[in-house]
Amino acid sequence: ILIIEDEKQLCQSIAEGLRMDGYEADTCFDGDEGLELCLVENYDLILLDLNLPGVDGLEILRQFRESDTSTPVLILSARGQIQDKVEGLDLGANDYLTKPFSVEELLARLRVTQRRLLLLQASGDADSPVFQNGKLKIDYAAGCAYLNGEELHLTPIEYKLLCLLSHNVGKVLTHTY
Ligand code: CA
Predict the structure, then answer these.
(1) Residue 53: per-residue pLDDT
(2) In sequence order, what DSSP letters do the residues of 107-160 get, joined into one string?
(3) pTM for this one?
(4) Residue 57 CA to ligand 1 centre (angstroms)
(5) Tens digit of pLDDT for each residue in 146-156?
(6) CB-count burial class (<10 Å; 0-12, 13-18, 19+) for 47
(7) How many angstroms does the Cα of residue 107 sit away from the middle of ligand 1?
(8) CA distance linking residue 10 with residue 16, whole number of Å
(9) How many angstroms is it from 21 CA to the middle of ligand 1?
(10) pLDDT tens-digit readout, 101-112
(11) How close is the Cα of 11 to the center of ligand 1, in Å?
(12) How far apart are CA 139 and CA 135, in angstroms?
């Protein structure tokens, strides 16, 4: 995890909290270095302050998202920067935390972000004609489903139900769907 935050004490206490929870954390205190690090290194997640010396956080996010659309970015911002948060989310940030926040809250948000990513990976790209999750594969274009590579013989209703569930991995659907 890369933490780009110019309040050194805050940055270091976040890093400490992350390390205590088993994450590896790098710290960075200015925008120029932050931008370079996230473009050059391969982080699993980036915590990004908005007001930074050098390149500001939103500009870092803009440039980072031009080359990397999948690495999660969480914005750390001060109270009252609502417009910046909205802009950050529009630029592709995954979530934001309002300062001051506790390390426990940050860790909880990280877990939420990770769960969302896992669900996204399991459900695959929405435009993908093939769904794959474990032993199950659905070829939407061909209208076929496979388990362990063997075609499943499903009734039309069963097939429709399977497709519906595959598009809603991790969600509970009611019978009214
Ligand atoms: Ca700052």
Answers:
(1) 97
(2) HHHHHHHHHHHHHHHHH--TT-SEEEETTEEEETTTTEEEETTEEP---HHHHH
(3) 0.69
(4) 9
(5) 999 899 998 88
(6) buried
(7) 20
(8) 10
(9) 24
(10) 999 999 999 988
(11) 10
(12) 13
